[in-house]
From TrEMBL:
<keyword id="KW-1133">Transmembrane helix</keyword>
<feature type="domain" description="Cytochrome b561 bacterial/Ni-hydrogenase">
    <location>
        <begin position="16"/>
        <end position="177"/>
    </location>
</feature>
<protein>
    <submittedName>
        <fullName>Cytochrome b/b6 domain-containing protein</fullName>
    </submittedName>
</protein>
<keyword id="KW-1003">Cell membrane</keyword>
<keyword id="KW-0472">Membrane</keyword>
<dbReference type="InterPro" id="IPR016174">
    <property type="entry name" value="Di-haem_cyt_TM"/>
</dbReference>
<dbReference type="GO" id="GO:0009055">
    <property type="term" value="F:electron transfer activity"/>
</dbReference>
<dbReference type="Pfam" id="PF01292">
    <property type="entry name" value="Ni_hydr_CYTB"/>
</dbReference>
<dbReference type="InterPro" id="IPR011577">
    <property type="entry name" value="Cyt_b561_bac/Ni-Hgenase"/>
</dbReference>
<feature type="transmembrane region" description="Helical">
    <location>
        <begin position="20"/>
        <end position="37"/>
    </location>
</feature>
<dbReference type="InterPro" id="IPR051542">
    <property type="entry name" value="Hydrogenase_cytochrome"/>
</dbReference>
<dbReference type="GO" id="GO:0005886">
    <property type="term" value="C:plasma membrane"/>
</dbReference>
<feature type="transmembrane region" description="Helical">
    <location>
        <begin position="49"/>
        <end position="66"/>
    </location>
</feature>
<dbReference type="GO" id="GO:0022904">
    <property type="term" value="P:respiratory electron transport chain"/>
</dbReference>
<feature type="transmembrane region" description="Helical">
    <location>
        <begin position="144"/>
        <end position="164"/>
    </location>
</feature>
<dbReference type="GO" id="GO:0020037">
    <property type="term" value="F:heme binding"/>
</dbReference>
<keyword id="KW-0812">Transmembrane</keyword>
Length: 188
């Protein structure tokens, strides 16, 4: 397709991420950034931002049930066997493009959601009479935060690597909602 936006021959734009998916993605990212870098961990703002992040995660999980097809759980099921197969395919030099998350990316999404839910649960627990000042709850909250930071680094690294490997601008797709993919070599 000569003259297509972005100038790529044989590529097409496909709508994959709707506005709610993009809003929750960037809202969670902003909330995590604010709570990790700008708020006092013992302050009310930290707690309020945490509740905001939790609300966005819950909204996104509900959207995985009732939202459009690309936003649903069925578009990117957690499948460790498929993730290993994808990893081996990458090591063999294959450049398969996925409309939704690739199998490794799908596992990362579920990891991030579970980690954010664990952070939220332990954060809420620390504000209760029963668990206020309990060391293991605070340690679990801090461990979940550390795991989240490692996961974010791996997530961003994975996006950059997959962009380089496939030539598909994934970060752009999370802004525009449209993925620019080759006409061939796509699935789902």
């Amino acid at each position: 397709m000569a003259g297509t936006p972005g100038g790529r021959e044989g590529a097409r734009d496909i709508r994959v991420w709707d506005p709610l998916v993009r809003l929750t993605h960037w809202g969670v990212a902003l909330g995590v950034l604010i709570n990790s870098a700008l708020t006092d961990p013992d302050g009310a703002l930290h707690e309020q931002v945490g509740y905001g992040v939790l609300a966005l995660v819950v909204l996104r999980l509900l959207w995985c049930i009732v939202g459009p097809k690309p936003a649903r759980f069925t578009a990117f099921p957690p499948n460790p066997a498929a993730a290993l197969g994808h990893l081996w395919a990458m090591l063999r030099g294959e450049r398969r493009v996925h409309l939704s998350h690739n199998p490794l990316g799908a596992l990362m999404v579920y990891n991030l959601w579970l980690t954010l839910l664990a952070l939220s649960a332990t954060g809420i627990m620390m504000g209760t009479v029963t668990f206020f000042g309990v060391d293991w709850v605070e340690e679990l909250h801090e461990a979940a935060f550390g795991w989240l930071m490692l996961s974010v680094v791996l997530h961003v690294g994975g996006v950059l690597f997959d962009q380089w490997r496939t030539g598909v601008p994934l970060a752009r797709a999370m802004v525009t909602g449209r993925k620019r993919i080759p006409v061939v070599r796509s699935d789902r």
